[in-house]
Amino acid sequence: MADPKIAFLSSRTETAQKAEMELSQRYDSVTADEADIIIALGGDGFMLQTQLEFMDSGKPVYGMNQGTVGFLMNEFRIEDLHERLNKAIRARIRPLEMTARDSEGQIHKATAFNEVSLFRQSAQAARLRIEIDGKARLEDLVCDGVMVATPQGSTAYNLSAHGPILPLTAPLLALTPISAFRPRNWKGALLPNKSKVRIIVQEPDKRPVNAVADNMEIKSAVEVHIHENRSSQGILLFDREHSWEERILDEQFRY
């Protein structure tokens, strides 16, 4: 079997640029349009940017860590790249779609592979009403914020906010509060991935809230709709000896 045609893309950091140069000297490469596989060199943020760029193209993205955490990335090694690619395990991920209305009535749409989050914008705690599939589940959540996270995003900000870790193939979304004050004991919920979430900001003038889809931020949001886009997908490649499932298990037994 012929080796796949590969394209190297790197973040703007010096280490990632150097890694791209070293790999390009070792392996033949083509443009991203011509490639069968995209090699992303950077951190998790760059991986998500690359996934968005090539979403629905059918091109898998194989990340090599040149960032900080690199949970979505494989170990950086120059040797045996084609062998690693041929043995890699594919994981399909679906994004969230966010539609947000701001205080001026403007409608904003954005896509997120990790999470959609709402954050208080001032010293005042946010007051949020949460509806799932048209039914109110929390009439008044007083908090610093709340997020809806995908399985691939469950090990990112969601985990730091004490949300659950989700296996990549789980048909679930995590609804996780950020510093909930009332109800104090509410720890969040697991939602079917077909759920449609509507979050209404109460007292938006007194308690303004921002909405963020991965790295796109909407100021002064008053109503946010979130759902998984079942018609779009990205494809990740993981080394067989360190698959996503193995990483998820690993993370849950850390202490």
Give the proportion of residues in helices.
10-25%
| Low-pLDDT ranges | none
Q: Order of SSEs, N→C?
A: EHEHEHEEEEEEEHEEEEEEEH
| Number of alpha- plus pi-helical segments | 5
The appropriate CATH architecture of the largest domain is Sandwich
Structural class: alpha+beta
The CATH top-level class label of the largest domain:
Mainly Beta
How many structural domains does the protein architecture include? 2
What is the percentage of strand-forming residues?
A: 35-45%
Question: Mind explaining what this structure looks like?
Answer:
It contains 5 helices and 17 strands. The protein starts with 5 loop residues before the first strand and ends with a helix. With 255 residues, the protein is of the alpha+beta class. It folds into 2 domains: 6-94 and 233-252, 3-Layer(aba) Sandwich (Rossmann fold), CATH 3.40.50.10330; 96-228, Sandwich (Tumour Suppressor Smad4). The mean pLDDT is 93. Strand 8 and strand 9 (135-143) form a beta hairpin.
What structural keywords apply?
255 residues, alpha+beta, Rossmann fold, Tumour Suppressor Smad4, 2 domains, 6-stranded antiparallel β-sheet, 5 helices, 17% helix, elongated
Question: How do the strands and helices of this protein lay out in sequence?
Answer:
Layout: E1 6-10, H1 14-26, E2 37-42, H2 44-53, E3 61-65, H3 81-87, E4 89-93, E5 96-102, E6 107-112, E7 115-120, E8 126-132, E9 135-143, E10 145-149, H4 157-160, E11 172-178, E12 189-192, E13 196-202, E14 209-213, E15 216-218, E16 221-228, E17 234-238, H5 244-252
Parallel strand pairs: 1-2, 2-3, 3-17
Antiparallel strand pairs: 4-17, 5-6, 5-16, 7-10, 7-14, 8-9, 8-13, 10-11, 11-12, 13-16, 14-15
